[in-house]
Amino acid sequence: MTVRNESARHVMHTTHIRKDKTQIAINVVTYILVTLFCIMCILPFWMIIASSFSTEDAIRRTGFTLWPSDMSTYSYELLFRSPDQMIGAYIVTICLTLAGTAIGLFLVAMTGYALQRRDFPYRNKIMFYIYFTSLFSAGLVPFYLLMVQYLNLRDSYFAILLPLLMSPWLIVLMKNFVKAIPHEITESGKIDGAGDFMIFVKLILPNLKPALATIGLFLALSYWNEWYYSSLFLTTKVEYRPLQYHLYNVINKVASLKNSVAGSNVVITDLPGETLKMATAVVATGPIILLYPFVQKYFVAGLTVGAVKG
Question: Which of 22, 265, 275, 309 has its CA 20 to 30 A from that of 61?
């Protein structure tokens, strides 16, 4: 018996060692692959930053490199040549992003909650109209006439704020998120005498944190990157434009100067082209990249909520 026990212990010990070695090998391979993937993700951003600090002539001679061969901050100096305009563009974009994200989240969450309520009699009809707008659009001309002639929103920041508040895709996404919340929570609130709005604020919203973070990130990105509506509805009467539209105008002005007669009196290689684009990318995406780690855990959790479970 003693020999058998010793043999069994030896076999178990050997098996345990093999499992440990296998697990270590799997961990090493996993860490290597994840590290390589992270490097592949970081390299493009690093090349953008390095190129933004290069001279235009260096980009033309050596292309995009991991380290600037000829260090220069001329592109950033050109962007911040009018600091009041840049600061104003940042303030306008931040205010629009914060206000639009907060209001849009509240409206999308309320709409998604109402459309999944079993006791809401018109939910299928309303959902049809919402889904219909994602398939067919009236076009740019009716939309422009509505905003300018009927709503009188030309040269108003509301022309940027209102169109991005809600979208059919975000409503459908929120509706699927809310479906994961048991309907018994709503019924328990009714039994306690709470109204629909109180049930939504006190019972439903606290359970929607991952969904709010996910949709809030989409809304924030749409407001932060917005330039199209600004080009349609904001004219020279508006002193400060959103950041993306301001950077877009700076790039166009430099490109026009290169192609103009006035540009013939300037050394063309001194005028940034590609480096200016890289600098605008850094200025535009930097704050969003810094913000993302704070909402990453909610964003990842939100992507799995309401997913198809096997």
Answer: 265
